[in-house]
Amino acid sequence: MKATIIGAGNIGMALAEGLTRSALCKKNEITVTRRNITSLSSQAEAGYKASTNNNEAIQNADIVFICVLPQQLNEVLEELLPSVDIKNQLFVSVVTGVSTEVFRHKLGNKLRIIRAMPNTAMKVGESMTCLAAANATKKDIEVVQNIFNTLGQSIVINEDMMSAATALCACGIAFFLRTIRAASQGGVEIGFHAHDALKIAAQTALGAAKLLIANKTHPEQEIDKVTSPKGCTIAGLNEMEHQGLSSALIKGIKLSATMAGNLYQKS
Fold this sequence. Notes:
By secondary structure, this protein is of the alpha/beta class. The chain is 50% helix and 14% strand. The protein folds into 2 domains: 3-156, Rossmann fold; 165-260, ProC C-terminal domain-like (ProC C-terminal domain-like fold), CATH 1.10.3730.10. The protein has helices at 10-21, 41-46, 54-57, 73-80, 100-107, 138-149, 162-189, 194-215, 219-224, 232-242, 245-260, and strands at residues 3-6, 30-33, 49-51, 63-66, 90-93, 112-117, 127-134, 152-156. The chain is elongated. The protein starts with a strand and ends in a 7-residue tail after the last helix. The mean pLDDT is 93.
């Protein structure tokens, strides 16, 4: 399979690694693009094909990944249009806030397009990726899921849930990181050195997530296992709730979801 990645930034190159890990492509079968060829020197040295010409880059590609910013998309799609092969090419978009309808309107109504919302944990193989498809075959979806599953886990959802997925999945990384930071700051206040507090908080957060995934339990079930009558855990939890912990997270996620749906403005 030949693949082209339009926009070889952090997410684009994580996808390139996923393609090679899934054995769908060899490095020399992957073309990566950026506006500045000098910024692709390390990718070229690693064995990928590098280009600044998006139109030429997608010619003969079986799968095309679009990994640009929403404000760059219209220009990129205009560049790609002359070389798009509707019948034979599968497109995958990781562009935030842009529906599959936009791609089909600009590149052709019969375009096979899968919209993906991963997060930056792709870099360590722990991303959560939400996928939504239009005109894609069952095999298309399986291929794309296989790629993203090498970078973490993935699920297929209805496209009308993609803004919500952006908030909970992509923005969610920042929300949980800020929570870990707050926990580590609390650790410093109670006597730990900063680096020790951060290590303890991060590993504890990782352990909590793994408990839920491994046991397939609800958070409250695991919380019940570590709270005892008149104990220190329930005292701390109740104080956090009095200060608005859950409410603040919920409100933040709702606001991010609303904004995610408005990032791309049709021209």
